[in-house]
Structures are given as structure tokens and as C-alpha cells.
Design brief:
Order of helices and strands: EHEHEEHHEHEEHEEEHEEHEHH
Radius of gyration: 18 Å
Helix content: 25-40%
Structural class: alpha/beta
Shape: globular
Mean pLDDT: 97
Strand order of the largest sheet: 3-2-1-4-5-6-11
Low-confidence stretches: none
Distance between the termini: 35 Å
Number of strands: 13
Number of helices: 10
Largest sheet: 7 strands, parallel
Strand content: 15-25%
Length: about 300
Amino acid sequence: MSRILVTGGAGFIGAHLCERLLGLGNRVICLDNMFTGRYENVAELLKNPDFELVNANVINPLDYDVDRIYNLACPASPIHYQYDPIMTTKTCVMGAINVLELAKKTGARVLQASTSEIYGDPEVHPQPESYRGNVNPIGPRACYDEGKRVAETLFFDYRRQNRVDGRVVRIFNTFGPKMLPGDGRVVSNFIVQALRNKNITVYGDGKQTRSFCYVSDMVEGLIKAMEADELAAPVNLGNPCEKTIIELAETIIKMTDSRSKIVFEDLPVDDPARRKPDISLAKRVLNWEPKVSVFEGLSKTVAYFMEK
């Protein structure tokens, strides 16, 4: 039994991760300030004596006796991280410092949930970990994009200078149950709009692409990255099945038997045109690749939203 701290543990991916870690026989401390996390995401877990929920902010110093730290704390959708961009940057940077300081003090292994957004609007496709990105450092998305990039810098500096066993994974678009219905992410947006027979809002011409990974696959990737004997470089985690936004909208309309019509609006500033992970490194060093198809994952996610 390991003692594990999950920051952002009441969020979408965090709650699934906490549940899986408990199922593996660990003791889990879930730390979340509930900005985008939800009590309902972890309500069932509170019945487990090995689970503890702490309402706190990762930008403040941490003091827990743990063996493992998963740092998932940070709003991940543009609506939420642009609501208070200064706080988003603080969460990325100060949060990384605080989990790394805790790892330095306790000797815990620590994993940083980074993002595909560190690649910006990529000029290389698909995106390998060696690609350094094309990010606008002063745009409205920079608080998240650059915040995550600095967090990666800190992880590798702590590794080199303080011998902290820090690992970095770059998460590509992930979806599934427990997503917030109004978080601005494309899958939840389209499903909610389709179920309500409202217009489905596509930004730009809809030809931009994303690669969608079901949450159970992502959780397994996170755990494999944490438990690997050695992980000395960032690793992409995502589903390389690339789809245009129009394709996604049309698929969801058919799945929900919706009367929704697709409408187009202006593309947000710095919105990436293409996104697809090169996961050859994850396959080689983690023996990981997605198992759940996008269609199967969408079916499960639609069923979840239909019950809400």
C-alpha cells in the first residue's frame, strides 16, 4: 500500500485517477480547491477509509507524508483557465514548486500532468516529444501554455539539481464521464448541445483536428508513467486517432439522434490547427497505448450526460 497525494483530485481526470488508485489498494489524499473540481466526483470515494479529501490550494506549501504525488492541479479548459489567467500561471508554477519541494523533503516520486498545449499551434505533425513547440508567450492562452512549460522546466531542474524523481507526461485531449457540462471542451459542449437539440457551435471552419483519448486509458497511462523504473524525458499520452471537429460534431449528432444544426463562429486566438500525438515513446518505455476506441468512449460519455 502506497500513500499517494493527488492534487486536482476532484477534477475530471483526477477523480478517475483517485478511484483507480484506491482500487489498487493504495491510500489516497485528494487535494482540490474546487474551482473546477466537484464534490460529486469523489462522493462515493469518501466511503472508503483509505481516501481523504482536503480542500486546499496547491499554490500554498504542502506538508504530507506520502510516497507518490500526482500533480493534476490546474483548470484545463480555456473558459476556466482564462477566467483568472494570473491565478492559472500561479497554479502551474507555484503548484509545481510546492509539489517538488514536498517530493524533495519526503523522497516521494512526483508526476507532472503537462499538456499537449506546450506544443502550441504545431509546425510539426504529429507531435513528438522532441518538438519544442510554437507558442505565443503573450496571448490569451499563454497563462496555461507557458505555465505548463515552466512547470516542465522546474521538474527537470529539480531532477538535475536536487535529484527529485520527477516525471512529466503531456496529456492530449481526454474525455469521458465526470466532464463538466459547461467547461467549454469540445466533446462535452457538443454532447450537451446535441442532447438539448440546440445548435452545435463549431469555431472556425471545423477542419482543425484533435485526437481524443478516453479517460480510462489516460489513467492507466498516468499510473504506468509513475511506476516505470525510470522516466528521464517527457512522454506523450493520447490517442493518435485524429478527427476533424466537423467529423466529431456529425458523429455526436448521429449518436444522439439529435435535431441539432451545426453553426460556425470565429476561431479563438491561437487555437491550434492540428493536434495528434506521436506515442511511439509511450509504447516503447511504458508499454502503453489506448485500448478504448473513440466511438466506444463517446457512447459511454453520451450515456453519462443523458443521466445528468
